[in-house]
Design brief:
This protein has 145 residues and is mainly α. It has one domain. The protein has five helices and no strands. α3 runs antiparallel to α4 and α4 packs across α5.
Length: 145
């Protein structure tokens, strides 16, 4: 049973990487609206990187490998128990950080796209994170986890 799950995991991982390579390697067409320019003239490296699908793909793969490695360390059992606890702590902290960043950024961008200013959008993002924190504390007090 364990061998089958390893083979399936490997095949799906290879399929995912093949799909990413196929989608990012394709020459997508770009167009300019009403005489606008499609070049990155005057934009910073960070701004150009944030718009690049390859940067996002590499960041996702690095995050997936980090989570996978921490998970293997946590459940492996072949290493020192302190190392497993360290892997579990890293996995928990990274999961919370990624989830909180996702909620904050999603709320921020959604608010900005609805016409709010940066400060107002940041307030909504912080409010969403705070609401989730209060919910987690309430669930902890009720003994849910």
């Amino acid at each position: 049973m364990a061998q089958e799950s390893l083979v399936v995991s490997f095949v799906l991982g290879v399929a995912l990487i093949a799909a990413v390579v196929a989608l990012t390697g394709r020459g997508w067409r770009q167009y300019s609206v009403a005489g606008g320019s499609t070049t990155g003239g005057g934009r910073s490296v960070v701004s150009r990187g944030a718009d690049s699908p390859m940067v996002w793909t590499v960041a996702f793969l690095v995050a997936a490998l980090a989570f996978g490695g921490a998970t293997v360390l946590f459940v492996g059992g072949a290493e020192v128990s302190g190392m497993a606890a360290l892997g579990g702590g890293f996995l928990l902290a990274a999961t919370i950080l990624v989830f909180a960043s996702y909620v904050f950024y999603g709320t921020f961008v959604s608010a900005r796209n609805r016409g709010l200013k940066n400060a107002q959008a940041a307030l909504l993002g912080a409010w969403a994170i705070g609401s989730l924190f209060v919910l987690a504390v309430a669930l902890k007090l009720f003994g849910a986890f």
